[in-house]
Amino acid sequence: MTIDAGPTTNGSPAGGPRSRPGYDAETTARLAADAAQIVARYPQARSALLPMLHLVQSEDGYVSRDGILFCAEQLDLTAAEVSAVATFYTQYKRHPNGTYTVGVCTNTLCAIMGGDEIFDELSEHLGVGHDETTEDGAVTLERVECNAACDYAPVMMVNWEFFDNQTPQSATDVVDRLRAGEQVAPTRGAASVCTFKQMSRVLAGFSDGRADEGVGAGEPTLAGLRLAREHGWTAPGTRVDEGLAPADGETDAEAGTGAPDAKGVAGLAGAPRGTSGADGSPSTGAPGPAGGEPETGEEQSSAEREPTTGSDVEPGGKPGTPEREGDASSPEERPASATEEDA
Questions:
Q1: How far is CA 76 from CA 35, 37, 49, 82, in A?
Q2: Do 82 and 108 sit in the same domain of this protein?
Q3: How many Cβ atoms are within 10 Å of 51's Cβ, its own excluded?
Q4: Per the structure, how many domains does the chain have?
Q5: Which pLDDT tens digit goes with each residue over 118-137?
Q6: Whole-number Å distance between alpha carbons of 329 and 227
Q7: Contact 53/74 with Cβ under 8 angstroms?
Q8: Residue 201, SS3 per DSSP
Q9: Whole domain around residue 248: which residue ranges?
Q10: Is residue 174 a part of any domain in this protein?
Q11: pLDDT at residue 326, rounded to an integer
Q12: Could you give the count of Cα atoms lying within 13 Å of 33 in the half-sphere of its Cβ?
């Protein structure tokens, strides 16, 4: 049997025929031992596919054809099923990746704060575009859809380690040092940046022992906690934490179900159960079971509520039409417009 393969990892030329696809025996045995550990984490073997793809990516630097065939064999899937997943997620690379993936967030907040300028500067400096790799194989540049660090915008990541509050100049300095083989420390997290293959193995679920290195959370992330401590703000009380409903006569605030007393919400937080407003006015329905939400069919359930507006009776009308403008009146009760009166 011959297979016209794409890029291979077993020594056969890319694009040429080969008689037996897959890793050599030594590599297969080593990866199979790792795969067994991954599969053991899940009740069904096929659920292990995502970390398995990271595993083969840690071997080849991308998800190769050999890697796809290995995953399919280990998990009793077809190559097509594995390929469908590998091509769906952008974290899996289908062509050789650089030693360092440099991802620049160009989503809304980072873009406003300078993310687009950083990407453009790096693209010109490195001579590559999105998802392209420098000739020396050191850096693959990417636009990233949010690095989940908006409080440090604009943010750049190198192999998923954070580089916060970047500028075009600081970002250029980072990639130059990486290409020169220097150790580079991220703003938060591990003490240094590992390679793409090493990070892929971590994402496969094999710890590199560096999870507790460096700064875990910076000042912007901790600002809320600091303010809470300064003002003596605390979390809700223990009855809710223990899964208990407030006792008879106990207010929501005393039981821990209300919001912290603050301007505009103090009265609401301290209102006894069965009341809703800051003035203690009665609510329109009794509380439901433990969580306070009515069951379907109980009072206030939307499934049982009678239509009260035109939108309830005839939903989907365009804004500005009677079907969408009714508040508490039905279409028949609304006053006629001047056009209707003229008619």
A1: 13, 16, 11, 10
A2: no
A3: 21
A4: 3
A5: 999 999 999 999 999 999 99
A6: 47
A7: no
A8: helix
A9: 238-269
A10: yes
A11: 45
A12: 5
Domain assignment present for 305? no
Burial-class residue 322 by CB neighbours within 10 Å (0-12, 13-18, 19+).
middle
Question: Both tokens of residue 172?
Answer: 């250029």
**Can you tell me the distance from the alpha carbon of 118 to that of 167, in angstroms, rounded to the nearest whole number?**
6
- The answer to whether the CB of 35 falls within 8 A of the CB of 181 is no
| 8 A C-beta contact, residue 142 and residue 103 | yes
Looking at the structure, tell me whether residues 107 and 162 fall in a common domain: yes
- The residues, any chain, with a CB within 8 Å of residue 335's CB and separated by 6 or more, are none
Last residue of a domain, one of 40, 58, 86: 86
Closest CA relative to residue 131, chosen from 92, 172, 176: 92
pLDDT at 306 (0 to 100): 64
pLDDT of residue 17: 47
Cα(51)–Cα(330) distance, integer angstroms: 56
Token couple for 300: 């206030």
**CA 76 to chain centroid:** 29
| Residue stretches of the chain with pLDDT short of 50 | 1-6, 11-19, 240, 256-291, 294, 297-302, 315, 317-335, 337-343
DSSP H stretches of helix in the chain: 25-39, 49-60, 65-75, 79-86, 108-113, 115-126, 168-179, 196-203, 219-231, 238-241, 252-255, 266-269, 310-313, 322-325, 338-342
DSSP per position, 124-135:
HHHT--TTEE-T
b/e for 216-255, b at 16 or more Cβ within 10 A? eebeeeeeeeeeeeeeeeeebbebbeeeebbeeebebbbb
Could you report the per-residue pLDDT of 36-76, keeping only the tens digit for each? 999 999 999 999 999 999 999 999 999 999 999 999 999 99
Please give the pLDDT value at position 215.
79
